[in-house]
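Need residues for this backbone.
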């Protein structure tokens, strides 16, 4: 059964990579999962929620042409929700971290687990069965504006007993007093993104699950959001989104969505927390920021040697991580050395770097 699903997804990825567009797709941990298993990596419960009003006000500032919070040390490392439908907690925490950093000067890695354990405790609901990011902000505002750090309240991939009152509060310099919804247009989202990260929601499709890099423009959405993530920047070409499926998925855990497109509802449910000064300073050492810096040019760079070709039609950047596969994907992996009449000076595919042995791989594989 697993092999049949894997083979089907291999064909899907190959077909997807032959279509026009700037996105790259690859086999990954979703490639041998059932539909029910894949749904466990979602968790947005849209019941009772409607799209944001188009006319909602946004922060009053002139948005610059580009703002990438990853490049300013204002985004924490990518996390992995695992097989718990807790994406809503990661979207909520992601929408908080950059804004707290801008106000307090300290990047803080906040605890998704507190939201998972505590937000629906009185309602008797399991947070792994889904939730809504703004409900997390409501929990904080009703409990003194607090939220623990991930170091003090570690993520467990399951909903447990609420320990919020027994954990140190990491919202030292500013507290959450509520949240604001962002107008349901791309322009309003860009304007709000210029001042900090956003909790956003959209619909996951098969294309999104098999995404590996580049700028995606998904045309297969049906219209119902099922996943919450964090928008962490934009350029004139794309909106940068941080996912919660670990850094082995996508572009080191991130995805670039095309500008001037609906992007499966990405701009319809955005929000961010309202923060109020406490009068204290956050003097504890800052938490680690992601080292990911997005490429802003995702057009493939042709190899220097036109005679150097892939031996397989299914090659993608992910295959460059495996030494045994590189020889079958020499053009994709930019491994067209002197023995093929080429050179090793070309650029590597998006998401990879040239290792000391001259082969393009993801950085952690060098």
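Answer:
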């Amino acid at each position: 059964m697993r092999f049949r699903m894997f083979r089907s997804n291999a064909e899907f990825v190959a077909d997807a990579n032959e279509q026009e567009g700037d996105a790259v797709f690859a086999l990954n941990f979703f490639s041998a999962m059932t539909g029910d298993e894949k749904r466990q990596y979602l968790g947005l419960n849209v019941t009772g929620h409607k799209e944001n009003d188009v006319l909602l006000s946004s922060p009053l500032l002139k948005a610059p042409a580009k703002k990438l919070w990853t490049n300013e040390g204002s985004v924490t490392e990518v996390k992995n929700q695992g097989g718990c439908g807790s994406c809503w907690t990661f979207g909520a925490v992601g929408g908080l971290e950059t804004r707290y950093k801008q106000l307090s000067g300290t990047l803080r890695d906040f605890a998704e687990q507190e939201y998972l354990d505590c937000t629906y405790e009185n309602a008797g609901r399991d947070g792994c069965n889904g939730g809504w990011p703004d409900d997390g902000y409501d929990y904080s505002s009703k409990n003194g504006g607090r939220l623990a750090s991930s170091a003090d309240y570690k993520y467990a991939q399951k909903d447990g007993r609420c320990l919020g009152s027994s954990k140190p509060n990491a919202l030292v310099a500013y507290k959450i007093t509520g949240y604001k919804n962002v107008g349901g247009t791309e322009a309003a989202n860009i304007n709000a993104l210029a001042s900090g990260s956003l909790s956003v929601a959209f619909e996951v499709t098969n294309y999104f699950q098999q995404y590996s890099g580049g700028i995606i423009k998904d045309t297969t959405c049906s219209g119902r959001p099922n996943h919450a993530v964090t928008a962490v920047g934009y350029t004139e070409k794309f909106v940068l989104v941080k996912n919660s499926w670990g850094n082995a998925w996508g572009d080191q855990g991130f995805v670039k969505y095309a500008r001037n497109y609906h992007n499966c509802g990405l701009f319809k449910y955005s929000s961010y927390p309202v923060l109020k000064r406490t009068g204290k300073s956050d003097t504890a050492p800052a938490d680690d920021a992601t080292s990911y810096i997005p490429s802003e040019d995702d057009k493939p760079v042709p190899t220097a040697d036109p005679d150097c070709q892939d031996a397989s039609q299914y090659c993608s950047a992910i295959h460059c991580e495996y030494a045994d596969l590189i020889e079958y994907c020499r053009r994709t992996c930019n491994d067209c050395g002197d023995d093929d009449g080429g050179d090793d000076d070309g650029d590597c595919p998006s998401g990879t770097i040239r290792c000391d042995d001259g082969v393009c791989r993801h950085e952690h594989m060098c």
